[in-house]
Amino acid sequence: MEPDDASAAPNDRVPTEIDVEALARLLDGGYAGVRDLVRAGLVAHSAVLEDAERLGTDAFRERVRDVAVELAGTGQTGMGFPAEYGGGDDIGASVAAFETLAFGDLSVLVKVGVQFGLFGGAILQLGTARHHDAYLADVVAGRLLGCFAMTESGHGSNVQALGTVARYDAAAGEFVVTTEGDAARKDYIGNAARHAELAVVFARLEVGGEDRGVHALVVPLRSGGEVVAGVEIEDDGLKMGLNGVDNGRIRFHGVRVPREALLNRFADVTPDGAYVSSIDDPDRRFFTMLGTLVQGRVSVGGAGVGVAKVALTLAVKYAVRRRQFEAAPGAGERLLLDYGLHRRRLLPLLARTYAFHFAQDTVRRQLHDVFSDRDGSPGARRRLEARAAGTKALATWHATRTVQECREACGGAGYLAVNRFAALKADSDVFTTFEGDNHVLLQLVAKGLLTGYAGEFEDLDQLGMVRHVAGLAVETVIEKTSAHKLLERVRDLLPGGEAWDREAELLDPEYQLAMVRYREEHMLAGLARRLKAGVDRGRDPGAVFSSVQDHVIALARAHVERLVLESFTEAVRACPEGGEKSVLGLLRDLHALSTIEADRAWFMEHGRLTVQRSKAISREVNDLCRRVRPFAVDLVDAWGVPPQVLRAPDLLG
Comparing C-alpha atoms, which of 486, 483, 487, 477 is closest to residue 454? Predict the structure, then answer.
């Protein structure tokens, strides 16, 4: 690889330097105080990164628990709980804190997520005052540790098919919780193997011999540190990573809990054994219950963005220290980041990380608005669920890709444990499958698009979705999206018109948005037609859906990429005039054109790119990488990853 001149022909709309502190304030937004509190905690407990390497599994688990409890004492883990129980009354602040905590040890992050997000969040969102008063103050303070027992060995994503059963014994006024076969054992449950005293257990509720679907109950696991009678717990053992978290398998052998153990926000059982609910339809009730737990997906997506920021901070800073090969005899070796290929490897990932940062801002804001009742309408909740699912999927895949590319970009130094990539890679890999497998989540996104987030969105499984679409005119499906309104404008902007023949127009945000909007629109219409045609030919709806799943995932990805680009574009537009806005504009252009370039085969197949235009986009991406390069260190510094958690002496000096 040969270096080129990174300083040549600077763009006249870009300054020679930017104010890193001003950019950092912009990125931290309204949660700067919360994020700084978390950063201070990361610095105070930075030694846990070394503990992960030097301690045995049992000792490290205890260390991680101690750190999580100490963090609770600062208030940073309880931001989303009501103030009356020691919380901060701010769901958005809770997510911002979690995103920032991802800069540090990820076992601590996941321990905090299990304890306060999943276990505490389930009690808060699914329980009522009797549960809140009994548990929340101790949960928020870290005095009562628990776990979230949903996933089973035989069922993960298909929660409605869980095998654990809770039968109501009206004579005793108790539920009897039973694991019916190995497939029904609770598995991979964080906090279960060692520390949890209580579990929020998801089980099929049987009342009067009738199956009422999956509900959640509070079930004791331990008393005085000892496992209670009727509960069997097995350690899941060593994992690829996150070995500071004590994942375990749980079986229940006729464990009895009082009637009041049912988390009864949406359904209850009277003392005499009558099942009552404010939501008559069982499917709607189930999806409403799960919808209250969407914060977990929002948080995991944000954590994925945090992991990518750490990896890029390490790789970019290394690339402006490490030299390799002479550009010319006697000229001295050049910095890695002055090579076009190295910039191509790192800087589009940096731009995409900024894009996901602003996309995460959007979904966090929507979460806060929905759960603070600023916009709690059913439509807003459905859109939030789909957006959270899609953002989580693409952000965590981005994290996995970014960690790997950055590790390789640091060569042998990146392979040393002390330089953090080993832990980043091992500990973050599971993000793509917990809180929902990413491919399953993208199917949820597509379902929302095909049904227009209508009332049927909550009720339809995959087969129901196929039948629903088959019963509509394809044009009706399209009209339920916002994309169709832009179709004519998109056609005007795409190649074929004289106005778009110049390469400079590639940097027009309207062109960039038009491309991704058209792709989504075309995929949506095509998928709807394929579904309808399959059913019209008399094929089984299940077989029809299976035959188009690749199309479903492609549509969902295209939809989320459009949302991400829109969030980035709006953030740049809202940024105050100055150098920071100009550089963010460069990043937005780099992200947008990299996104189009990555899928240029589709755009060319569908007549949206000529060969010449495709080549022009690649040239522009290369040029944007060159123009971003002088700001690369400032751009990663603005994320505010504390140096104490970066460690990496071989990378940073």
Answer: 477
488 confidence band (pLDDT: 50, 70, 90) = very low
Model confidence at 474, in pLDDT bands (50, 70, 90)? low
How many other CB atoms are there within 10 angstroms of residue 482's CB atom? 11
On whether both 486 and 586 belong to a single domain, the answer is yes
What is the pLDDT, as a whole number, of residue 555? 96
- Alpha-carbon distance of 33 to 452, in angstroms, equals 38
What are φ and ψ of residue 255, in 5° steps? -75, 130
Cβ 115 vs Cβ 192: under 8 Å: no
pLDDT in tens, 166-176: 999 999 999 99
Tell me how far apart the alpha carbons of residues 336 and 217 are, in angstroms, rounded to a whole number: 56
What pTM did the predictor assign? Answer: 0.93
pLDDT exceeding 70 applies to what percent of the chain? 89
Distance (Å, rounded) from C-alpha 98 to C-alpha 477? 37
* Polymer length of the chain: 653
Q: Which residues carry out catalysis?
A: 435
For 13-46, what is the HEC assignment?
CCCCCCCHHHHHHHHHHHHHHHHHHHHHHHHHCC
Amino acid code (one letter) for 194: R
- CATH number, residue 606: 1.20.140.10
Domain shared by 377 and 483, yes or no:
no
Domain total in the chain: 3
The closest of 517, 509, 522, 524 to 591, measured between CA atoms, is 509
End-to-end CA distance of the chain: 25
Q: Name the residue range of residue 386's domain.
A: 20-122+293-432
Question: Which residues on adjacent β-strands are paired with residue 450?
Answer: none
Query: What pLDDT does 437 receive?
Result: 93
Contact indicator for 469, 427 with CB cutoff of 8 Å: no
Q: What is the DSSP letter of 293?
A: T
Q: Is residue 135 part of a domain?
A: no
Q: Are strands 210-220 and 198-207 parallel, antiparallel or unpaired?
A: antiparallel
Bridge pairing between strands 333-335 and 323-326: antiparallel
562 lies in some domain: yes
Q: CA-CA distance, 561 to 142, in Å (whole number)?
A: 38
Q: Which residues of 202-231 are buried (b: 16+ CB within 10 A; e: fewer)?
A: bbbbbbeeeebebbbbbbbbbeeeeeeebb
Q: Which of 38, 26, 22 is nearest to 641 (CA)?
A: 38
Return d(Cα 509, Cα 592) in angstroms, integer.
Answer: 8
Residue 4 tokens read as 């080129």
Q: Give phi and psi for 320, each to the nearest 5.
A: -105, 10
What pLDDT, in 10s, does the model give residues 29-65?
999 999 999 999 999 999 999 999 999 999 999 999 9
pLDDT band at 335 (very low <50, low <70, confident <90, very high): confident
Same domain, 420 and 541: no
Q: Which of 411, 432, 453 is the last residue of a domain?
A: 432
Nearest to 305 by CA among 100, 543, 542, 8: 100
Alpha-carbon gap, residue 431 to 242, rounded angstroms: 11
Whether residue 1 is contained in a domain is answered as no
**Residue-wise pLDDT tens digits, 362-382:** 999 999 999 887 666 778 888
Q: Which one of 384, 415, 432 terminates a domain?
A: 432
Q: Are residues 227 and 329 in the same domain?
A: no
